[in-house]
Amino acid sequence: MNSRPDRDVLILGGGVIGLACAWYLLAAGRAVTVLDQGAVGCGSSHGNCGTLTPSHAMPLAAPGTIGSALRWLLRPAAPLRIKPSLDPALLRWLLAFARRCNWRDAARGAAAKLPLLELSRRLIEDLVREQQLDCEFSTPGTLNVYRDARGFAHACREHERMADHLPRYEVLDGAAAVAREPALRPGVAGAFFNPGDACLRPDRYVAELARIVRARGGVIEEGVRVERIEREGRRVARVVTARGTFTAAEIVLALGAWSPQFAGALDLRLPIQPGKGYSITWARPRLCPRVPLSLKEPSVCVTSWGSGYRLGSTMEFAGYDTTLNRTRLDALRRGAAQFLHEPEAGEPVEQWYGWRPMTSDDLPILGRAPRLDNLVLATGHGMLGVSMSAGTGLLVSQIVTGQAPALPIDAFAPQRFG
């Protein structure tokens, strides 16, 4: 190994998390190089629905999730699909997830996630304003909408039980929900309005992060695939890529769903599974939703911007399968048609999939890696990478520079997995 590393901070991954880390490290006075295997922001940051949702503090591992998964097991178009597999890593992940589907762990998870989501929500708004990010940021809140009266009543009880770990919300009956959002068809049972939520166009947000990182002196190298990470003693000695070897005083691993591929060489446990999500983007329909929607029974997210309109969501555990599953896309369209007057607008502009880095406890992995003095982990953000991006970036900069974190991060520590 070189006696002196050739770079100060090397960030592996140029998605929304890696770029947010780069920005806040640059702001803290560090020199930063970002490596990305493709074009910046081409992964799960690109095609998601772009909502910033402190309201999503409730973990996916919650009471009732296992029952729903079992009911959906033989339905290819169900919101959750688990491809039959004997992969030991997936089986261990599913078992760990199932163990956390109880109220005690759900409350602990929400209590940990909410401060990070709220911190990040504030920081993103500040960043948009101060750096003049052109990403269609707006603050309309979000609506979680139900058509099934029993399901809505059950959700009301859950919200009451978890109220101490959720941001402020309003309960709306069906008529009030449709009055709030005229794009909804009649027949709504009720909704929750989350006034603190916001939204943006995620691909433009990532592009703008890359712009301001470069403008501040950060180096972003695209098309650089990491082949292996080598350690010597308690340090990462070098990062070997298809375009050469990199060394750095500090390394931040922000590789999202690809993070586990390097865990073995680093003696790390990173129980992350790629959770495949889908989206379809159109031009705006004539009667376009004014408020981002979460259509609960079909698990479809609906977001609109001045530049377009998107349906997204679903969760598919099928490894790193690269096919665009038509059944999953059609499920998005059918789900939206149940709720919206105009669920589509002509021919789609884009049909997309991406892999979310899902941890078994639905919390990110954030902190210094055990037994490695120069590696910081910033991965495992699940479905909330955009929502948690700026908060994660600030916390990583504080970890690297030795400052006290802006909020407690023990719940996110890599050591929790042993």
Account of the protein in words:
This protein is 30% helix and 25% strand. It has 418 residues and is of the alpha/beta class. The mean pLDDT is 94.
Would you kindly provide a brief summary of this structure?
With 418 residues, the protein is α/β, with parallel strands linked by helices.
Query: Helices and strands: which structural class?
Result: alpha/beta
What Rg is obtained from the alpha carbons, in whole angstroms? 21 Å
The arrangement of helices and strands along the chain is EHEEHEHHEHEHEEHEEEEEEEEEHEEEH
The fraction of residues in strands falls at 25-35%
DSSP strand count: 20
Sheet with most strands: 9 strands, mixed
Number of helices: 9
**N-C termini distance:** 29 Å
Helix content: 25-40%
Low-confidence stretches: none
Which descriptor suits the 3D outline?
globular
